[in-house]
Amino acid sequence: xxxxxxQVELAGPIAHVRLNRxxxxxxxxxxxxxxxxxxxxxxxxDRDVRVVVLSGNGRSFCAGLxxxxxxxxxxxxxxxxxxxxxxxxxxxxVTEVWRSLPVPVIAVVHGHCFGAxxxxxxxxDFRFTTPDAKWSILEAKxxxxxxxxxxxxxxxxxxxxxxxxxxxxxxxxxxxxAGELGLATGVSDDPQAEALALAERIIARSPxxxxxxxRLVLQTRRGSVREAFxxxxxxxxxxxxxxxTAIARKAGSTGAExxxxxxxxx
Length: 266
What we know:
Elements (H helix, E strand, L loop, with lengths): L5 E6 L2 E6 L10 H16 L5 E6 L10 H4 L3 H8 L8 H10 L5 E5 L2 E3 L1 H7 L3 E4 L4 E3 L14 H7 L2 H10 L3 E2 H7 L4 E2 L3 H13 L3 H13 L5 H17 L1 H12 L12
Parallel strand pairs: 2-3, 3-4, 4-6, 5-7, 6-9
Antiparallel strand pairs: 1-2, 7-8
């Protein structure tokens, strides 16, 4: 039986999602894409999950799309790519599903973070990397554009001229440089420890306010001020009614450790 290309392990409220194609540096083939989409959808339905830590087994986070493996089935590639003008295709959905997850996603990067791998990491909410990891918007090397959902977070994280330079050249840069450019949240010899430390701080807060805050931050980046204010009011109204808000208030006033219930906000 073929081993799963995506491993999901629940450690209390923290879900560890690991790309598991280490012999190919976790390069995406069609099965990995399908399993990663399904893992994201499954975790979105699990209201006990509070944080997702996304990483790769073996020597690399993800070396990008494995063209040789993926294009063995060109008809399937075509079905996954042509989704119609009004919705994402599977090559975009495999990264976007993590951006749209109602809980924070923390990517842990080591080894290679190329092409599709970088677009996956960019769609996480946080990225911790080793200083010697190799990063690249590699599509330029193959005469392509980044088309797996990366352009939106790239535009949010990088200055326009920096993004253009990296996307036009496909230059390889280090994890240390990724931190200096603002692509990486933090640079550490032990990025997994940094990710878990942040995860512990997040799960100390109400899962409802965390979910609502993620939605508020992402949805107000490009809209009008009026739309942002409207969303603030709508989400705050839900917080007033949330049982987890009452738990947070009581803990805040007494100094006790809060024991939150399942997330009620999508």
